[in-house]
TrEMBL record:
The modification 4-aspartylphosphate is found at D54. This is Response regulator. Residues 2-119 form the Response regulatory domain. Keywords: DNA-binding, Phosphoprotein, Transcription, Transcription regulation. It comes from the Bacteria. The keyword Transcription applies. Residues 432-530 form the HTH araC/xylS-type domain. InterPro entries: CheY-like_superfamily (IPR011006), Homeodomain-like_sf (IPR009057), HTH_AraC (IPR018060), HTH_AraC-typ_CS (IPR018062), Sig_transdc_resp-reg_receiver (IPR001789), Tscrpt_reg_AraC-type_HTH (IPR020449). Pfam families: HTH_18, Response_reg.
């Protein structure tokens, strides 16, 4: 913290310096000024928390300085030290935020007491300022998510969602407008460099896009851009005035995307509709204009609503090629996979148009094929690449980048093939068969010797290999899986502890309780009670 002493007499400034033990109060620096003008310069650069000032000084005097401080630095605490016992000066001091008026000659006890009062006053206000800053930070962080939710809900129920309408009216005064126009930007279609940078961080990309959109829309307070929470990979822009400038605004937004992200985005625009009743109509129009535009040819990024649905129909199905792709994946041969995918890509090249509707339908068929393959071998493990969202890559002209699309699909299928092959190898491994046997029969009276007899191998071999593969010996694994199943059964209020014990393979309820406490840390009864609480 800093203190500024303002007085035209140097000996007075020096006296104030010596009267107060500044370091004991956390003051790091004591500054001096010889008049009001000098003081203003110092306040503007140093921002001192406390100011001691005389009233009568050459140049800008103390009363003028107090007025300036009240207007420009009112968080600082000011104490006047003057040789003039004049009520008008005292009144001016209090009126302009001064905390105290001390008469010269200065009494040490009085000035220390006055400074302590100013320090306590500043600390209270600083604590409140810090709370306000944190509150504003929380509000600024949560406000966009709140507005996203309100706009998304209003699109979903434009007639009946009065709560969302009122909340948005508080923020944007939308009650003053009876028309709107809408645009939709999809992050399902990304250029190669954006795909490489943001495919696994789509929320970060959404944040950048929304900031750019709202930076441009906010300048004229004519609309707002939000993330549609009910639809994946979709940003919606809505304006309620200056409709004749909307196309130009969107092009300006795309120019900003080019400058910051080095790529434009496809945007679909609705016609002008009534607000708020026509929100669903406007949303469908904007989406239709985006989804049914041709992404195989042309160079346009802004897609206007044509007034009706396109007559372009889906004439190519991924499912017509999936059987060959499935066979190639099962073979785990990269050449076969590449050949099968190439046939599908070649068929796309022979089309006259490709719409977002078609692309999404192909993606849906692709996911169905993947589900079929996983279900065939009861595949349950999670792999990041396998569960990664399939995006549609665009070239620098904004058209479907078929070579990269082929590369992406081929990479996916090669990963599937390797994981499927791994899973088959595991299924053929006897230790995994034993684990599966335990998983299915944990509730039975399982002994290691009986398991060994079941699989015609020694118990020592099972113990050694099982621990190498899973990090636990078979007995500990049986105990672990039984306790995990027991924790689930304890959620059922209708089951007694003895019932749960029997269901997971313990015939002795007391022994079950002992084992449960060893693993979980509390008895089954206490655990069950905690679930109720």
């Amino acid at each position: 913290m800093k203190v500024l002493i303002v007085d035209d007499e140097e000996d007075v400034r020096q006296s104030i310096r010596l009267l107060i033990p500044w370091s004991e109060y956390g003051i790091k620096q004591v500054l001096e000024a010889c008049d009001g003008n000098n003081a203003i310069d110092i306040v503007m650069t140093e921002k001192p928390e406390f100011i001691f000032t005389d009233i009568i000084m050459p140049g800008k005097n103390g009363t003028e300085l107090l007025t300036w401080l009240q207007q420009n630095h009112n968080q600082g605490k000011t104490i006047v030290i003057s040789g003039h016992d004049d009520f008008k000066y005292i009144q001016h001091t209090l009126k302009n935020g001064g905390l105290d008026y001390i008469l010269k000659p200065i009494d040490r006890y009085e000035i220390i007491k006055s400074f302590e009062n100013a320090l306590n006053n500043w600390k209270v206000e600083e604590a409140k300022r810090n709370i306000d800053v944190k509150r504003n930070q929380v509000i600024s962080q949560t406000k966009p998510a709140f507005l996203d939710k309100m706009f998304s809900n209003l699109i979903l129920q434009p007639h009946s969602n009065q709560i969302a309408f009122e909340e948005l009216n508080k923020e944007f005064h939308i009650r003053n407008y009876n028309q709107f126009q809408m645009a939709i930007l999809s992050t399902d279609m990304l250029q190669e460099k954006i795909l490489q940078k943001y495919a696994n961080h789509i929320d970060k990309l959404d944040f950048i896009l929304l900031n750019i959109c709202n930076e441009i829309l906010a300048k004229s307070a004519e609309g707002y851009a939000f993330k549609h929470l009910n639809k994946e990979n979709e940003i919606v822009l809505i304006i309620w005035k200056n409709f004749n400038h909307f196309d130009a605004k969107l092009r300006k937004i795309n120019d900003a995307f080019m400058e910051i992200l080095h790529t434009p985005f496809h945007i679909g625009i609705s016609s002008i509709n009534l607000f708020p009743g026509g929100l669903q109509i406007g949303y469908k129009e904007a989406k239709l204009s985006l989804r049914q535009s041709n992404y195989l040819v042309g160079q346009e990024y802004i897609h206007q609503f044509k007034g009706k649905a396109s007559e372009i129909s889906n004439t190519l199905f991924f499912s017509d090629y999936s059987e060959a792709i499935v066979i190639a994946i099962k073979s785990n041969e990269k050449k076969q996979i590449d050949k099968a995918i190439s046939k599908f890509i070649q068929a796309i090249k022979e089309l006259n148009s490709v719409t977002l509707d078609q692309l999404e339908y192909w993606r849906h068929e692709f996911y169905l094929m993947k589900s079929y393959l996983f279900k065939e071998i009861s595949f349950e493990e999670k792999f990041e690449l396998i569960h990664k969202h399939v995006y549609f890559p665009l070239n620098k002209d904004g058209r479907l980048y078929l070579d990269l699309f082929k590369k992406e699909l081929t990479q996916y299928c090669e990963v599937f093939a390797e994981k499927l092959a791994d899973e088959r190898r595991k299924n053929q491994n006897i230790i995994f068969d034993i684990k599966r046997y335990i998983d299915n029969n944990y509730h039975e009276h399982l002994l290691l010797q009986s398991i060994a007899d079941q699989f015609f191998i020694s118990r020592e071999y099972i113990s050694r290999k099982f621990k190498q593969e899973f990090g636990l010996n078979p007995s500990d694994y049986i105990e672990k899986i039984r306790i995990e199943k027991a924790k689930i059964l304890l959620m059922n209020n209708d089951l007694y502890i003895s019932d749960v014990a029997s269901a997971v393979g313990y015939q002795d309820g007391r022994y079950f309780s002992k084992v449960f406490k060893k693993v979980v840390g509390v008895t089954p009864m206490i655990y069950k009670s905690s679930l109720k609480n």
